[in-house]
C-alpha cells in the first residue's frame, strides 16, 4: 500500500511545483552558482577583471596579514557581542513591560518600532549629528555650563565602534521587542496564574519558566541579529566612513574597498568567502537546533 501511495504523492500539487521551478532555478544559478564562483576565484590573482590564474592561498595569506582586515574582524567581534547582548536584554525588558497590558500600548509599540523603519544610512547620519561634538550631545551639555564634559565617540579611535553600536542598538531594539512580545503573548495565561498561586516571584517566572518556553523565538531572533551583524556596512559608512583612520573598519567595507576602490577582485572574493564562512557558523547550529531537534522528536 505504501509503495502505491508514493507515486500519487509525487504527482500532487503539480501546478504549485511547476510554479516553484523558476524560483528554484534562480536560487541555484544566482545564489549557489554565484557563491561557488566567488569561492573559486578567491584562489586567483584577479584584479580589475576575473582571470583563471590560480595562486593557491596567497589571497588568504595577504588577507590575514592585513592590519585593516584584522581591525575589521576585531571591530565586528566587539560590535556583534555587544549588539547581541544589549538588543536582546533591552528588547526583552521592553516587551515584558508592554506585556503588562499598559495604556497606550499601541502608541509605545509604534514609537519603539519606528527606528527600524529607517534605513541604516538615515540612522547613521542622524546619530552622526547627535554625536557631533559641536552640535550634538557634547555641544548641548557644554552650553549648559559643563564646559569640561566630553562625549565624542565617533572622533575617538579607541571607542569609535561603541558610537556605531549606539546607533545600531537604537535601530534594532524595536524589532527585537516586537518578536519578544509576540513570544510572550503566546504563553498560556494558566502558567502565570499557577506561578502567582505558588508565590513564585515574577523575575523567577520569567527566568526559569517563560524564557525557556520562548526558546524558538530567541533562536530566530539570534539568527536575525547575527545576519545583520555580519553584513554591517551602511551604518559605518554613514557615520564614520571607516575612520578615524581605519579604526572603525568592518569586513563588508573591506570587501567593498578591495573590489571597487583597489580593483583587486581576488582579495575581495577572499574577504567575501570568509564572511560566508562566518554566516555558515551561525546558520548550521541554528538549522541543527531547529530541524535536528524536531526530527529526533
UniProtKB/TrEMBL annotation:
It comes from the Bacteria. CDD domains: TM_PBP2 (cd06261). GO terms for biological process: transmembrane transport. The keyword DNA repair does not apply. InterPro entries: ABC_transporter_permease, MetI-like, MetI-like_sf. Residues 73-286 form the ABC transmembrane type-1 domain. The keyword Transmembrane helix applies. The chain crosses the membrane at residues 20-43, 76-98, 110-130, 159-184, 205-230, 269-289. Belongs to the binding-protein-dependent transport system permease family. This is Sugar ABC transporter permease. It comes from Neoaquamicrobium microcysteis.
Amino acid at each position: 500500500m505504501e509503495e502505491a501511495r508514493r507515486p500519487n504523492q509525487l504527482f500532487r500539487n503539480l501546478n504549485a511545483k511547476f510554479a516553484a521551478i523558476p524560483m528554484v532555478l534562480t536560487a541555484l544559478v544566482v545564489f549557489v552558482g554565484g557563491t561557488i564562483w566567488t569561492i573559486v576565484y578567491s584562489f586567483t590573482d584577479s584584479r580589475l577583471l576575473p582571470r583563471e590564474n590560480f595562486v593557491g592561498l596567497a589571497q588568504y595569506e595577504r588577507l590575514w596579514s592585513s592590519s585593516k582586515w584584522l581591525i575589521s574582524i576585531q571591530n565586528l567581534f566587539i560590535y556583534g557581542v555587544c549588539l547581541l547582548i544589549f538588543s536582546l536584554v533591552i528588547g526583552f525588558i521592553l516587551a515584558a513591560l508592554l506585556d503588562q497590558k499598559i495604556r497606550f500600548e499601541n502608541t509605545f509599540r509604534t514609537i519603539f518600532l519606528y527606528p527600524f523603519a529607517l534605513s541604516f544610512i538615515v540612522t547613521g547620519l542622524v546619530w552622526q549629528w547627535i554625536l557631533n561634538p559641536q552640535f550634538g550631545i557634547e555641544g548641548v551639555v557644554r552650553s549648559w555650563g559643563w564646559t569640561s564634559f566630553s562625549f565624542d565617540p565617533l572622533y575617538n579611535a579607541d571607542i569609535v565602534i561603541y558610537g556605531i553600536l549606539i546607533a545600531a542598538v537604537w535601530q534594532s531594539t524595536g524589532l527585537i521587542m516586537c518578536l519578544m512580545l509576540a513570544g510572550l503573548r503566546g504563553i498560556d495565561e494558566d502558567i502565570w496564574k499557577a506561578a502567582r498561586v505558588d508565590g513564585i516571584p515574577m523575575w523567577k517566572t520569567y527566568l526559569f519558566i517563560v524564557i525557556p518556553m520562548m526558546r524558538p523565538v530567541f533562536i530566530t531572533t539570534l539568527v536575525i541579529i547575527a545576519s545583520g551583524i555580519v553584513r554591517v556596512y551602511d551604518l559605518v559608512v554613514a557615520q564614520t566612513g571607516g575612520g578615524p583612520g581605519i579604526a572603525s573598519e568592518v569586513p563588508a567595507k573591506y570587501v567593498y574597498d578591495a573590489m571597487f576602490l583597489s580593483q583587486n577582485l581576488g582579495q575581495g572574493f577572499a574577504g567575501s568567502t570568509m564572511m560566508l564562512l562566518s554566516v555558515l557558523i551561525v546558520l548550521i547550529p541554528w538549522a541543527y537546533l531547529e530541524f535536528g531537534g524536531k526530527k529526533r522528536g
